[in-house]
Design brief:
Layout: H1 3-39, H2 43-53, H3 63-79, H4 86-99, H5 103-108, E1 113-114, E2 119-120, H6 125-141, H7 145-153, E3 157-160, E4 166-169, E5 174-176, E6 188-189, H8 191-195, H9 207-216, H10 220-284
Antiparallel strand pairs: 1-2, 3-4, 4-5, 5-6
Helix pairs in contact: 6-10, 7-10
Keywords: Membrane, Transmembrane, Transmembrane helix
Pfam families: DUF6216
InterPro entries: DUF6216
Length: about 280
């Protein structure tokens, strides 16, 4: 193994260690942020930290008050709600029991349920329409994902001459681009075909462009340019693919919220209607 290879492996290990530390830091920050977002407060986290630091602190008269706050935060975390008092918490639990409501759907709608009135907040029509339009746009962009994925996997860069078709090129070959990599009826140029002076029909690719491609296999500036372009293409494709997937994920999440809101509203209406009907029947007996 040469010196350059050893240095390369050392550099890779160094970068991997840095990457692992960054991932660890992201996880450490991400978990408490998710907890705070779900509970709507950081009190219980700070309480646990203070308890770890001051293990032997004496109990005070505010213990009951602290336990009340912790109880509310546990409730908010489990049910994804934003209750601010034990009264709201107890009212919510009695409401669930009274009408035998589906707590899973109630949890899914999150903070859209007003804890004071126990009524679902309705989405504005414009918001709903914009989310639907966003999702349709996202589904259309799915068609571009196979292309972007092929860009990520390819060790070639996609280029185009004026008045010619697109083609893949690297240090070893140039090949006409076809959607979804259809291999039929495509032209291919390699260093071997250049040496043997095998010429492609002028109608398919001009001789001038063929010479430029052949020259690119040996010219050091062209080789460096192609290598640099392949890396840029990969990074750009990874970024765009990630961005599109995030858009699709966000759209799907928002559509799920709309759907859950509708299902939950319907479920509450039916359960209350059933409860009142049963109570009416029992009163007539």
């Amino acid at each position: 193994m040469g010196v350059q290879q050893v240095d390369l492996l050392s550099s890779i290990n160094e970068y991997l260690n840095i990457f692992n530390k960054i991932i660890g830091l992201v996880i450490v920050l991400f978990v408490p942020c998710c907890f705070i977002k779900r509970t709507g407060s950081s009190f219980s986290l700070l309480h646990k930290i203070s308890f770890l630091i001051l293990k032997n602190f004496k109990k005070t008269k505010i213990d009951d008050f602290i336990n009340e706050i912790l109880d509310i935060e546990r409730f908010n975390f489990l049910y994804n709600k934003n209750a601010i008092s034990l009264e709201q918490k107890n009212k919510f639990e009695n409401w669930i029991r009274k009408y035998s409501l589906d707590f899973r759907l109630i949890t899914k709608v999150g903070k859209l349920l007003d804890m004071e009135s126990l009524k679902l907040k309705s989405h504005k029509k414009k918001y709903a329409l914009s989310i639907i339009a966003f999702l349709l746009f996202s589904l259309i962009t799915l068609a571009s994902l196979p292309i972007l994925i092929s860009f990520i996997n390819k060790d070639s860069v996609l280029l185009k001459f004026e008045n010619s078709s697109w083609f893949w090129i690297n240090q070893y070959e140039a090949k006409q681009y076809k959607f979804l990599d259809q291999e039929k009826n495509i032209w291919v140029i390699t260093p071997e075909t250049c040496q043997k002076n095998i010429v492609i029909s002028e109608d398919i690719l001009s001789q001038e462009y063929q010479k430029i491609i052949c020259n690119a296999f040996t010219d050091q500036d062209d080789i460096r340019y192609i290598s640099k372009s392949i890396k840029s293409q990969k990074y750009s494709s990874i970024f765009l693919t990630t961005f599109l997937l995030l858009i699709i994920s966000f759209s799907y999440k928002e559509m799920s919220k709309l759907d859950n809101n509708f299902k939950c509203r319907k479920m509450i209406f039916q359960k209350i209607k059933k409860y009142r009907k049963n109570r009416k029947l029992s009163s007539h007996r």
